[in-house]
Specification:
Blueprint lengths: L1 E6 L2 E4 L4 E9 L4 E9 L6 E7 L4 E3 L7 E7 L4 E7 L8 E9 L2 E4 L3 E6 L1
Parallel strand pairs: 2-11
Antiparallel strand pairs: 1-3, 3-8, 4-5, 4-9, 5-6, 7-8, 9-10, 9-11
């Protein structure tokens, strides 16, 4: 089992920045990828950014160039950060952390990000 704890959401004005954190604990060996997805009201959940175990990254088209994902690995935990700059009102959503380990997908509880115009 992998436990995910998210933090860092909130309310920010357009053009501002926020940083989300997601700490993974438990069976963190063999985690293949960790990343962030988001879901706005009435919309499907979509990829924001993910980082593979080897360090390669992938971004959703709408956030490319504005958001940066990074990872820090320690003995018993792996933490993934999402630095969000130049935020826009359309970035408003619940942001979910996801980890993939072997054949299983683990999701965090979600954190609300609201960008006011």
């Amino acid at each position: 089992q992998v436990q995910l704890m998210e933090s860092g959401g909130g309310l920010v004005q357009a053009g501002g920045s926020l940083r989300l954190s997601c700490a993974a604990s438990g069976s963190i060996d063999s985690i293949y990828t960790m990343g962030w997805y988001r879901q706005a009201p009435g919309k499907q959940r979509e990829l924001v950014a993910e980082i593979l175990s080897g360090g390669n990254t992938d971004y959703g088209d709408s956030v490319e160039g504005r958001f940066t994902i990074s990872k820090n690995s320690a003995t018993n935990t792996v933490t993934v950060y999402l630095q969000m700059n130049s935020l826009k009102p359309e970035d408003t959503a619940v942001y979910y952390c996801r980890a993939v380990r072997r054949k299983f997908y683990y999701w965090g509880q979600g954190t609300q990000v609201t960008v006011s115009s």
